[in-house]
Amino acid sequence: AQSVSQHNHHVILSEAASLELGCNYSYGGTVNLFWYVQYPGQHLQLLLKYFSGDPLVKGIKGFEAEFIKSKFSFNLRKPSVQWSDTAEYFCAGGNKGGYNKLIFGAGTRLAVHP
Amino acid sequence: EPEVTQTPSHQVTQMGQEVILRCVPISNHLYFYWYRQILGQKVEFLVSFYNNEISEKSEIFDDQFSVERPDGSNFTLKIRSTKLEDSAMYFCASSGTDYTDTQYFGPGTRLTVL
Predict the structure, then answer these.
(1) Using an 8 Å Cβ cutoff, are B33 and B26 in contact?
(2) Among A91, B4, B74, B96, whose CB has the most other CB atoms within 10 angstroms?
(3) pLDDT tens, A39-66?
């Protein structure tokens, strides 16, 4: 069965700390991968996506993620977080060739303290 | 920037009543989706809709649920006879002219079934 898992449910960091949020997926075929962010009181917004090509994907606001096929992983990174990065982060996967329904991970709540 | 809108933001209903949740996707988008998130759980795919018909649906999307695009702008989710377990946040999403396009999410409708 298709699944996406996120290891960290809550992460607390100080400003300027580095961030890495784990995401693993289990899919039968080739997969598209996404990271969405939900700031308090706001919509889910796309941070970045991987469909094919360079496995290191750069997104908005200084975020990046690396697709490692051998590890079934798509971890999100940011070298230096800011207080404004406080949000919930969702990893999601979609099958290539389908209508791209998204399978979401459980989400990681990030709190950044000044 | 165009965005997906949803109404109402919060709906309270009695068990057994019918509810209709409304979404206005981004105007030139062709693919439409409903997802839901029960409190404390993952965001779950319900249904995708393309070319005026359902393209994929999940096991959750049983006969109590239906979707419709009644005119050129709205996309609705109807729950015929609500149950307590239908209480959740319901998100509408739309994507462009290719199914690989990014899905843009609305702010959600919080449905509370009493």
Answers:
(1) no
(2) A91
(3) 988 889 999 999 888 999 999 999 999 9
